[in-house]
Design a protein that fits this description.
single chain; 387 residues; mainly alpha; Leucine-rich Repeat Variant; 3 domains; 21 helices; 67% helix
Length: 387
């Protein structure tokens, strides 16, 4: 006992010293209603939807203030002793608990990392500081962490593009796939983004190729309108002094033959994606007209319909497609017959040979087809009469 008592006193003094050491520095500050970032992260793990919703509100309110701590949580590693300390920290409150949270990192299990990435997703553009950490998390062995980090980068938006675009050439196919999908979600019309996605159209991994087809369509549907870039059909009029525009147009020029190839390969959904992307980037040269003419013979009604819509946008160059468009007037799907008539009407005078077939279509069983055929005949007649 004489030896044990001094030993216990010594252990107590050492413990007190550690406690004082922890308390000398200021711990994490509350970010929302006296709650720490850790508290909000814990709430996100709750099975109660109301508790999770409150955490979402808190994270959005905290914004950029919560990001440094979330980065720390995202990058923690597994540790048995850390797990025990964090579990015990819940028993404390006030400055003691804050001191512990400051000195000891949260256990880095994949669930915590996933929730941290999800929290950064909720914060969105204000989490731009976390981009490097999120990029590193794309290599996380946990599929859930990888996926959620990709989601977070997409929600950060444009600030993430410079870090994401180079990943299109990463040696890891899963990282390349994630990068291409992220760029599609962000829909940035920047030269770096477009070039990265177009390069992936020729990737060795078929899944990456298909993702690139879809992402390029997403970018075309939003990015260029926002940046004020003209469409791909007027690429020859592009100002070569504008490096960004010239780079985008050069990328699109590389993309068109690859997309035309995809339009006749893979499954019906992939063929539709390729045609839809040609539509979104406003491709309209003879290669596109030829590809769409072939697609009008596709066994899939949806592929045929998408090809008709591309021709409808590229009608000024679509005269070579008139013969196959006339055959489409007999398509089994009413919407396809109507679109074939609409495109012929837009083509105008070069589609004069279709008038007899359009007149027959005025007796179609579908009222939409009859109306469209009549309108097409009027447009062709006006175009023929023009000098």
């Amino acid at each position: 006992m004489k030896i044990l008592r001094p030993l216990l006193i010594a252990i107590g003094l050492i413990a007190s010293g550690f406690l004082l050491f922890w308390m000398t520095g200021q711990g994490p500050e509350p970010v929302y209603k006296d709650k720490l970032v850790f508290d909000l992260v814990q709430q996100m793990l709750s099975p109660d939807p109301a508790v999770r919703d409150e955490a979402t509100v808190g994270l959005r309110a905290a914004g950029a203030k919560a990001v440094p701590e979330l980065i720390r949580l995202l990058e923690t590693k597994d540790s048995a002793w850390r797990e025990q300390i964090w579990q015990q920290s819940r028993r404390f409150s006030g400055p003691v608990r804050r001191a512990i949270l400051k000195r000891i990192q949260i256990p880095g299990n994949s669930g915590t990392r996933r929730v941290a990435a999800h929290a950064l997703t909720i914060i969105g553009p204000e989490a731009s500081q976390a981009v490097p950490a999120l990029v590193r998390a794309l290599y996380d062995p946990s599929q859930e962490v990888h996926y959620q980090s990709a989601q977070a980068l997409g929600h950060v938006g444009y600030p993430a593009v410079p870090a994401i675009a180079p990943l299109a050439k990463d040696t890891n196919s899963l990282v390349r796939l994630a990068a291409i999908r992220i760029l599609g979600d962000i829909r940035s019309g920047s030269s770096a983004s477009v070039s990265a996605v177009v390069s992936a159209l020729d990737d060795e991994d078929h899944a990456v190729q298909l993702a690139a087809v879809r992402s390029l369509g997403q970018i075309g549907s939003a990015g260029w309108q926002e940046s004020g870039l003209p469409d791909a059909s007027t690429a020859s009029d592009r100002d070569p002094s504008n490096g960004s525009r010239a780079g985008i147009m050069a990328s699109l020029e590389r993309a068109i033959p690859l997309l035309c190839r995809f339009a006749h390969q893979s499954g019906p959904e992939e063929r539709v994606d390729a045609l839809r992307t040609l539509y979104e980037i406003r491709a309209a040269d003879e290669r596109v007209i030829e590809a769409c003419s072939l697609s009008l013979e596709d066994p899939s009604p949806n592929v045929r319909l998408t090809a008709l819509r591309v021709l409808g946008r590229a009608y000024t160059n679509a005269a070579p497609a008139v013969p196959v468009l006339i055959r489409c007037l007999a398509d089994e799907i009413p919407e396809n017959r109507a679109w074939a008539a609409r495109v012929l009407g837009r083509i105008g005078a070069p589609a004069k040979s279709s008038t007899t077939f359009l007149e027959d279509l005025q007796n179609d069983t579908d009222p939409m087809v009859r109306t469209t055929a009549t309108e097409a005949l009027k447009r062709i007649a006006v175009a023929v009469e023009l000098p």
